[in-house]
Amino acid sequence: MTKTDASEIRMREAARADVSRVAELIMHGASVQKRTPGEIAAEAQDPVYLKAFDVIAGNPYNTLFVAELEGRVVGTYQITILPGMAERGRTRAKIESVHVAPECRSRGIGAIMMRHAIAFAAEKGVGLVELTSHKARPEAHRFYAGLGFVQSHEGFKMALSP
Q1: Fewer CB within 10 Å: C terminus or N terminus of the chain?
Q2: What is the mean pLDDT of residues 111-130?
């Protein structure tokens, strides 16, 4: 697969008009995805995603980004700035929902997005960038390690009913 040059990718904050495409990218990248592309496209139209976007856009500590290639959204990630008390008040950034369109994977777009995320965090005065990746995604783990991320902690989650 041909690598994509960074100059071909336009990184920008997501707009409300991008919401269904972002939802599709996230669902296509889910480690336990069992839906067909048609089911994903239909699900991405659910107004719940617009509501989630509005919450993210309304929070100054959260930013949702998209990567465009030739005018088409082909990637996304969300970054959250987390002020903290640990490490003498070090601010952290958490990167989540890093996804590239299936037909565009292995072209370097994910690396372009991650470099963008790290630069964005540095501009915000962040001292530590962190992310999590599902245990069922060993290729993603190799990708993040190749970018310099270190598996330093074991993560835990607990789902709560809304």
Answers
A1: C
A2: 96
